[in-house]
Amino acid sequence: MTAGIDDISIYIPRLYVDANDFAEARGLDPAKLQKGLGVSKMAIVDTNQDPACLAANACLSVMQNNKLSPEDIGRLYVSTESSFDESKAMNSYVIGMLEQVYGQGAFEHCGGVETKFACVSGSYALYDNLNWIRAGEAEGKAALVVVSDIAKYDLGSSGEMTQGAGAVTMLLNDHPRLLTFDPRVTATSIRDEYDFYRPFGKETPIVHGQYSNLLYMIQVRKALEIYKDKAVSTGLIKLEPGETILDHMDYINMHLPYSAMGKKALAYLVRHEWRQLPRWKKIIQEIGMEEPVPKDPRGTIESVLRDHEFMTKDHEFTKLFTQTPEYQEVYEAKLSSSLIASKMIGNLYTASLYLGFRSSLEFEYQKGIDLEGKRVGFGAYGSGSSAMVFSGVIQPEYKEVVKSMNLEEELGSRRKLTLNEYETIHENKLGLEESILKTKHEFILVNVNTSIESRGERRYVFTK
Ligand code: HMG
Fold first, then answer.
1. What is the pLDDT of residues 327-353, one digit of tens each?
2. 163 to each of 218, 257, 259, how far by Cα in Å?
3. Residue 336 zone, left/alpha/beta (φ > 0; ψ -120 to 50; rest)
């Protein structure tokens, strides 16, 4: 049985910090954000928004756009790393909010959990729900997989320039108009790591930035190797001599903690794939330097990062490699459109990969390219750490959905925050009722109980 994404909706908070204002306030060169990291705006939540209401808003929009009723939905999963309760799952809050619109008990039949594994948990939730459909358990119903997060880092930290917030909802069924996932090729890689984590009670993560960049690439590459073996052994892809698995992906969507990470990660994967092929000789000639190797090629990530001579040379080599026409062609054709939304919004943790997928669909369609039958590869990464690589094929009915995608319109009129306003919100100095924006037809948080017997209970309303 086939299974895939029928529609995808997004909810992005309308407040943002501009990268140039941010750079000026922190004494940074704006080019570091705009060019180095590929960040031009970072979406910020208002005082009355939390990840549950972002998720509910994205769910409501997919339900309304497709005229779905609660009976059409059999499962609702929420994946997040911005959880605010150690026990009560975020999907229960979302169901509570949706029932304000659809009636109390309307989603009673709808199973689901909140899943956690940093940014990759949404991809595990997607995989599990696809298998629920493939197994014939769905009985004609659809699943909603919601990925929702607020990427918030300490003021003044190096992660602060890679913030963002938002939610994406994917409507999954057995007759998807957008994309059918390739069966039996999903590949995972996992190991116990501390590149980025958020201990209990801490609002912001502890981050080892450069370590996390390198680990992301190593883990995704390992998952790609496993994907390659599965794709070949299941007969999904036949590799001819001189070909790489990436040649068989028309589009590649990567997890995007900031948009330039997608470019960096793609370059890393392409380098490793091409190195074994006849085409590499020509690339090395064009670059004019041999590919550097670390002093201890079998060393740890720490030893590689400490090998400054190697890191400098490797950085130079990567820069030159990404300027070759061969890499540029791959980048432009397979990745570049997926980065557009990320530049405008920032990191959405679990939702970043899927915002990128949506961005790729919209902006490739706008180029007039026929997307039917194109294979899309996905490279998911979550700190702590695990990677997933999987793929799917764009379906003949995709136009029905993609033709009405309009990111600018969906972002609406956004309100730029001054740095002072941003810092006040960041430090939680404003109450829920002191929101910057007044909202219409959206879920907002109106109360968090502080009494001893009901501490932490949250109340939401759907604004008229
Ligand atoms: P940093 O170390 O201060 O920045 O912070 P940098 O020195 O690496 O510079 C960034 C880029 O800007 C570099 O580009 C510089 O050359 C360039 P590259 O060389 O890599 O191509 N640059 C400039 N370009 C133009 N003009 C200039 C200029 N100056 C520098 N003047 C870092 C960067 C990402 C480490 C930091 O922001 C951070 O810690 N972020 C949070 C962690 C993160 O995003 N890690 C990504 C991988 S892990 C992941 O994706 C998982 C995650 O989403 C969490 C989860 O799974 O839940 C984070």
1. 999 999 999 999 999 999 999 999 999
2. 23, 8, 12
3. alpha
Residues in the chain, overall count: 464
**Cα–ligand 1 centroid distance for 75 (angstroms):** 37
3 touches 176 (CB < 8 A): yes
Q: Please provide the DSSP assignment of 254-316 as one string.
A: E--SSHHHHHHHHHHHHHHHHTTSTHHHHHHHHHTSPPP--SSTT--HHHHHH-HHHHHHHHH
This prediction's pTM: 0.98
How many beta carbons lie within 10 A of that of residue 445, not counting itself? Answer: 21
Q: Which residues pair with 393 in a beta bridge?
A: 180, 375
Q: What 8-state DSSP symbol labels residue 111? A: B
Residue 213 Cβ < 6 Å to ligand 1: yes
Q: Which two tokens stand for residue 193?
A: 């790591």
Identify the residue whose tokens are 């530049």. Answer: 343
pLDDT (mean) for 168-176: 98
Q: Is the CB of 26 under 6 A from ligand 1?
A: no
Nearest CA to ligand 1 atom 17: 36
Q: Read off the amino acid at residue 320.
A: L
Taking the C-alpha atoms of residue 404 and residue 409, their distance in angstroms, rounded to an integer, is 10
- At residue 297, the pLDDT reads 86
The response to whether residue 257 sits with its C-beta less than 6 Å from ligand 1 reads yes
Asked whether 211 and 159 are in contact (CB, 8 A), the reply is no
Residues 6+ apart with CB under 8 A from 323: none
